[in-house]
Amino acid sequence: MTENDDKKLVVPPTQENKQKCLCPDCPSYNQCMQDKGEVLFCSSGATSCELEKWGCPCVRCPVQLEYHNIGLFYSEKGALKK
Ligand code: SF4
């Protein structure tokens, strides 16, 4: 268990947030992620798929704006916690 495990998610994994998430439109979003239904990486954590970084839409995502976040590539870095 790491120190990060004790922290709370910044973005709750609600259906509404999943629908607003721009991950499926991301150039880095691949077939494996789609097959596994992975979205909302800023809440659900890093992808379990191989990741080739081609870009990141998080900067213009409504979820990001709503929770006042400024990060990128949550698919690699994992969930935002505080
Ligand atoms: S900030 Fe990025 S990971 Fe989080 S919901 Fe938006 S597109 Fe998905």
List keywords for this structure.
82 residues, mainly alpha, 30% helix, 0% strand, globular, binds iron/sulfur cluster, Uncharacterised_AF2234, DUF2769 domain-containing protein
Please give a structural write-up.
- The chain is mostly helical and 82 residues long.
- It has one domain.
- The protein has five helices and no strands.
- The chain has helices spanning 15-20, 31-36, 41-44, 62-66, 74-77.
- The longest helix has 6 residues, at 15-20.
- The radius of gyration is 12 Å and the shape is globular.
- The relative contact order is 0.27.
- The mean pLDDT is 94.
- The structure holds iron/sulfur cluster.
- Iron/sulfur cluster is lined by residues 21-23, 40-42, 57-58, 61, 63-64, 74.
Concise synopsis of the structure shown:
The protein has 5 helices and no strands.
